[in-house]
Amino acid sequence: MSTLIDGILLGWDNNLAYAKQLIADIAPDRMTHQPRPGMTHPAWVLCHLGVYHPVMLAMLNGRPFPDPKDHRYGFNSTAVDDPTQYPPKQDLIASFEKHHTLIADALRQHGDAAMELPTTLDRWKPKMPRNGHVLPDLMLVHESIHLGQISVWRRVQAMPRV
Amino acid sequence: MIEALIAMSQKNLDYANRLVADLPPEKMSTQPPAVTGKPMNHAAWVLGHLAFVADFYATVLGGGQPAAPKHWSDLFGMNSAPQPDASQYPAKDELLRALAAGHDRLIAVVRAKPADFWPQPVADEKRRARFATNTALAVHMLVNHDAIHLGQLSAWRRALGLPSV
């Protein structure tokens, strides 16, 4: 296992721990609350990040995948303050944790070879021609950005810092 | 390994610039109206904090004396909080220059380390409690830390009714 994969797994595990801390004390009926219109909320963030988990697994196992941008929680989606549009909190965190584990295992098992494979999604190819460009970005940068949004969501409601 | 982390760091820097590109200087420390609770991390604080921390980590890794002004520790350090008074903060251009300079300094120090440095335990005992190896520290320094704060900045934009970037 390369040192890059070792490093990615460290950041990936940190993201899972941080995500769990961020939502641990949020009441289930507050998960879609928007302190200001347009702000992303924890339910949307976990759903949005969850869109990419099957993508990562597909990449690590050499399988094709649909463009995540078109998913109902994808890049083009908007967070709404409507709990009926999102799975309940316990389902969200269970899925998040399960996929984090699956992806970590797949990365350990297939990562070195999978990283060298060419990117299959056309719009990613120009800037990220190989899986080794996409996976670290999705696993570390993308997840961390959205977890930062939850930290602000907490802060503006005077929730304790984690 | 380290070049992949540096590439992500560069992507973070690009994103930081894009997040503030359309902000007039007088909006950099605005707080969204009717937000209860603690103030949000505004653009001036986020940029200054990221610049300060990059510079700090470059020093921690043996890159010589800090380049950031001494008072930035109070303004942007770990225990600082965003203030509503815009006059307390450097101008937008200065913050962006400091961020770029901090990034450059950190990346230069990181690139100068031998490959066998990264799997080793972090030398500082207090820091080692959180980051067992220099690799873990590198992931935090170059990628996760900045990305989390940039997510905060993106949320601040939305709270102000600004378009997403």
Question: What this model shows, in words?
Answer:
The complex is a heterodimer of chains A (about 160) and B (about 160). With about 160 residues, chain A is mainly alpha-helical. Chain A has four helices and no strands. In chain A, helix 1 packs antiparallel against helix 3 (about 90-115), helix 1 packs parallel to helix 4 (about 130-155) and helix 2 packs parallel to helix 3. The radius of gyration of chain A is 16 Å and the shape is globular. Chain A starts with a helix and ends in a 7-residue tail after the last helix. The mean pLDDT of chain A is about 95. Chain B has about 160 residues and is mainly α. Helices cover about 55% and strands about 0% of the residues of chain B. Chain B has helices at about 1-20, 45-60, 70-75, 90-110, 125-130, 135-160. The two termini of chain B are about 30 Å apart. The mean pLDDT of chain B is about 90. The chains are: A mainly alpha (about 160), B mainly alpha (about 160). The interface of A and B includes residues 37 and 141 of A.
Q: What kind of sheet is the major sheet of chain A? A: none
Principal-axis shape of chain B equals: elongated
Largest interface: A-B, 38 and 40 residues
By DSSP, the count of extended strands of chain A is: 0
Which structural class best describes the helix and strand composition of chain B? mainly alpha
Q: Helical percent range of chain B?
A: 55-70%
Radius of gyration of chain A, whole Å: 16 Å
Major sheet description of chain B: none
Q: What is the terminal separation of chain B in angstroms?
A: 28 Å
**Strand portion of chain B, in percent?**
under 5%
Backbone structural class of chain A: mainly alpha
Please tally the helical runs of chain A, counting DSSP H or I stretches of 4 or more residues: 4
Helix content of chain A: 55-70%
Rg of chain B, Å, rounded:
16 Å
Order of helices and strands of chain A: HHHH
Low-confidence stretches of chain A: none
